[in-house]
Amino acid sequence: MNSGGPRHYPAYHTVVDNFDYMEKFVDPSLSAHVSLTQLVADVVLQMSSSARLPLDVRELADTLEMEYDSLQQDGMDRFNHLLGICSTHSFN
Q: Is the pTM of this model over 0.90?
């Protein structure tokens, strides 16, 4: 797994990385935030009500690696798209 390069978006962990920036440019409808919150809540609920955790650690590791690679590629595609927008727009 390659952890180099930009993380999520061009302003990640910069002085402009705040709620206003997120709401205006990254996830205006906050749909990604809502989806992730719902997913985590569902997983926690299912695991907390299970007598035995239904996990195959090898399968989980393979799936996480596959999803990470997919998200990393999607992130790079989005980053490159945002770079294209930024290079044609003045933020003064």
A: no
Q: Are 85 and 16 in contact (CB under 8 A)?
A: no
Among 88, 87, 85, 65, smallest CA distance to 25 is for 85
CA atoms within 13 A on the CB side of 87: 6
Alpha-carbon radius of gyration of the chain: 17
**Cβ(86)–Cβ(6) below 8 Å:** no
What is the mean pLDDT of the segment spanning 20-40? Answer: 87
What does the pLDDT look like over 43-60, one tens digit per residue?
A: 889 888 888 877 788 888
- Residue among 62, 61, 65 at smallest CA distance from 3: 65
